[in-house]
């Protein structure tokens, strides 16, 4: 955890606060998007199974 704090403080001091915020937001959005894609794929699979059962 201490290494993360050092990394963030170095990023802010070297690049500036706006750039550090952009990097943090990019990481957050990228992580969230991966989780959403996984959830949507699971929902698609469930809907396909449900549709197959309804067809029978």
What is the strand and helix layout of this fold?
Layout: H1 2-15, H2 17-55
Helix pairs in contact: 1-2
Number of domains: 1
User: What can be said about the biggest beta sheet?
Assistant: none
Low-confidence stretches: none
Helix content: over 70%
Strand content: under 5%
Q: Could you tell me the radius of gyration in angstroms?
A: 20 Å
Order of helices and strands: HH
Number of helices: 2
Terminal Cα span = 54 Å
Structural class: mainly alpha
| Record field, number of beta strands | 0
- Shape type: rod-shaped
Overall pLDDT? 92
What does this structure look like?
The protein is mainly alpha-helical and 56 residues long. It has two helices and no strands. It is rod-shaped and about 65 Å long. It has one domain (2-55). Helix 1 crosses helix 2 (17-55). 95% of the residues lie in helices and 0% in strands. The chain has helices spanning 2-15, 17-55.
Key attributes of the depicted protein:
56 residues, mainly alpha, 2 helices
State the gist of this model.
By secondary structure, the chain is mostly helical.
């Amino acid at each position: 955890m201490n290494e993360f704090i050092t990394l963030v403080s170095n990023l802010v001091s070297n690049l500036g606060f706006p750039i550090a915020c952009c990097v943090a937001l990019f990481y957050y959005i990228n992580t969230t998007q991966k989780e959403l894609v996984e959830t949507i794929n699971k929902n698609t699979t469930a809907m396909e199974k449900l549709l197959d059962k309804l067809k029978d």
